[in-house]
Amino acid sequence: MENKYLTVAALTKYIKRKIDVDPHLKDVLLKGEISNFSHHSRGHMYMTIKDDQAKIQAVMFAGNNRYLKFKPENGMNVLIRGEISVYEAFGQYQLYIQQMEPDGIGSLYLAFEQLKEKLHKQGYFDQGHKKEIPLFPEHIGVITSPTGAAVRDIITTIKRRYPIVQVTIIPVLVQGESAARSIADAVDLANNLDLFDTLIVGRGGGSIEELWAFNEEIVAESIFRSKIPIISAVGHETDITISDYVADLRAPTPTGAAELAVQSQIELREKIDTLTRSLTRELTNEMRNHQRHLERLKGAYAFRYPEQLIKQKEQALDSFVLSLQKEMIATKKEKETRLLNLYKRLITQHPQKQLEQSKIKLDEKIKSQNYYMTKLLENKSIQLTNTIDKLFLVNPLEIMKRGFSLSYTAGNEIIKSTNQVKANDYIKIKLSDGKINCQVVEVEEESKS
């Protein structure tokens, strides 16, 4: 019996029909993490939905994803409704997504954000730590997989643009559990060798899992402590890793890193040619200017008639010398006159002279003061004598010497009226030379007219 062989297409169509008629696969509710996400220019979204043990290819056509209220990203956990079918061209079953919504944040994405925030706070991304990439490097170290397309792109680009630079590949693992340690050790090794003036660290494109080594903290630390400037070139332009943030310069691709590391020899030659032309033009103009200046000097009077010029200068010199002598004599005379005036002022204002004049003024003031004091004393003496004379005239004792007396009661009150005494009272009569104690015999009052 002859065996009947199926074609791949027939087998695939058979399996597809089996799956398409299964009612359990027509409406599938699935949750998982997005990986390898890409948004096609025609609007369709392609991705891998995975969990810890399995993954499935998925597509969400533009007609279904145009109403999404969020932008799917790698590492994002999502809840999905769709159906399972077979994509015959690849012979693989896949999920056709009809609805999708976020379900928290994927573990890798969360780890990325957490490490990014931590290193940012520690200053790993600060511009102040960025080192300048040399304009004309002599030896570039390329830390990447020796078998990937990235290393070929880097070497090809560097040799095409700047063939005189030396390039050394430092092979490392770029994915897998040991990749991060391998990359970090390579960066440290390059610094210890002290051979390179520029390092390129990177790899080609891949899923977030495949690029994850460049999001590890040990890689970030080795790049940060590197004394050699580092250009990070991981994946494609949309793939941004922690290494990109820490590196001194980020390139969108490995080829872009090579272009940033070296300048194009063609462009350099064009710059040199441009500078050469500019310099030649400037020198030519400068020489022409000097030539014209020289021609003017050659036609000058001094070069045509030097003897006459010397005679004129000799005559001018004599005139200057004569003028100078006159000026010196006038200056000397002016100085002497000024000195003589100063001497006269000094003699006039000499301290001894000032002292003598002051002494004369002082003597005159003393004489004047003595005269006025004497006159004042004489006037005061006259006034005092007049005052004493007036006081003498009104002195009671002097009046009493002329025969007057004062009478006092026994209580020493002056008797001014007969009413103050009565018969037999004792009274005292004070005279200018003593007093008399008396007794009243009789009191007579004079009649008032």
From TrEMBL:
Subcellular location: Cytoplasm
InterPro entries recorded: Exonuc_VII_L, Exonuc_VII_lsu_C, OB-fold_nuc-bd_dom
Reaction catalyzed: Exonucleolytic cleavage in either 5'- to 3'- or 3'- to 5'-direction to yield nucleoside 5'-phosphates
Statement: the UniProt record of this protein carries the keyword Cytoplasm: yes
GO biological process entries: DNA catabolic process
Keyword field: Cytoplasm, Exonuclease, Hydrolase, Nuclease
Subunit field text: Heterooligomer composed of large and small subunits.
Name of the protein described by the UniProt record: Exodeoxyribonuclease 7 large subunit
HAMAP family: Exonuc_7_L
Domain named OB-fold nucleic acid binding: residues: 6-101
Database matches in NCBIfam families: xseA (TIGR00237)
Gene that this sequence comes from: xseA
Similarity comment text for this entry: Belongs to the XseA family.
GO molecular function: exodeoxyribonuclease VII activity; nucleic acid binding
Function statement: Bidirectionally degrades single-stranded DNA into large acid-insoluble oligonucleotides, which are then degraded further into small acid-soluble oligonucleotides.
Domain Exonuclease VII large subunit C-terminal residue range list: 124-439
EC numbers: 3.1.11.6
Any single Pfam family the record assigns to this protein: tRNA_anti_2
GO cellular component, one term: cytoplasm
Main location: cytoplasm
